[in-house]
Amino acid sequence: WLTLAGWRSMFWLFATCSALAFMVLLRVMPETAGDRSHSIALNNLARGYGRLAKDRQVMYGSFAIGLVFIPILTWVALSPVILIHDEGLSRLHYALLQLPVFLAMILGNLTLGKLAGRVPIEQPVKFAAWPILLGLGLALGANLVNSHSYLLLTAGLSLYAFGAGMVNAGLYRLTLYASDEGKGSVAAMLGMISILTLAIGIELAKSSYFSGGTPWFSAINFASGLLWFGLVLLFLQEHKRRTQLRAA
């Protein structure tokens, strides 16, 4: 695509693909909402969302899911600016530097698939904290030493991406079943919170990069990782407490 058009046009491509996917899903995806002849009681919906907003475990998990993906989405959004516009790399070099990041995320997903069913669902989430924090720390440290060390930035984000690929499915499932509310409501609340978190994170990373370059960009990513880690610890503590209460 970059051989035919400028890097900014990629976002028009993404928007077009998203609109096409939406139209196809709207036409062919089966309805799963049950009996559509019954009207939705807005008061009941509001009370349900209010209970979810007060559920600490659901909130911890929802914000954590958004936070853990801020670095990968800021990379998607800003890597054309960092690598092509500011570092002067060719489009081919830019494309090649995307490969380790996304291949690492795929490898993380494959690793999770191998572990699924063999270890408790919480275990991959705990294990993923190591590559996530080490990778984001490597990227930050490298950029603090040299703001143009884009190779180490890519290496750090690749290590982080491996961990992010491992963590999402387990954390999503644990959050979805953290509440006895309807799973549609929990999924909707989770989606709204995580997307809002991502949007704020991307805007912060963008403003930070244009203010202070890659050190500030990496600092936002590392802060996201630390906040994710703190929320995951709180989430797992609450999960353990509720499990013990149910078993008592």
SSE layout and pairing:
Layout: H1 9-28, H2 42-53, H3 56-68, H4 70-86, H5 91-115, H6 122-145, H7 150-176, H8 183-212, H9 214-247
Helix pairs in contact: 3-7, 3-8, 3-9, 4-5, 4-7, 4-8, 4-9, 5-7, 6-7, 6-9, 8-9
Protein model, in words:
The protein is mainly α. It has one domain (55-247): Growth Hormone, Chain: A, CATH 1.20.1250. 81% of the residues lie in helices and 0% in strands. The chain has nine helices and no strands. The longest helix has 34 residues, at 214-247. It is globular, with a radius of gyration of 20 Å. The mean pLDDT is 90.
> CATH topology, what is it called?
Growth Hormone, Chain: A
Q: CATH H-level name... which superfamily?
A: MFS general substrate transporter like domains
SS elements, strand count? 0
Spans of at least 5 consecutive residues whose pLDDT stays below 50 are none
Largest sheet: none
Order of helices and strands: HHHHHHHHH
Number of helices: 9
Rg on CA atoms, Å = 20 Å
Strand content: under 5%
Which range best describes the helical content: under 10%, 10-25%, 25-40%, 40-55%, 55-70% or over 70%? over 70%
Please tell me the total number of domains: 1
**Gross morphology:** globular
Q: Could you report the average pLDDT, rounded to the nearest whole number?
A: 90
Task: For the record, give the distance between the C-alpha atoms at the N and C termini, rounded to a whole number.
Answer: 59 Å
Do you know the CATH architecture?
Up-down Bundle
Structural class: mainly alpha
**What is the CATH class name?**
Mainly Alpha
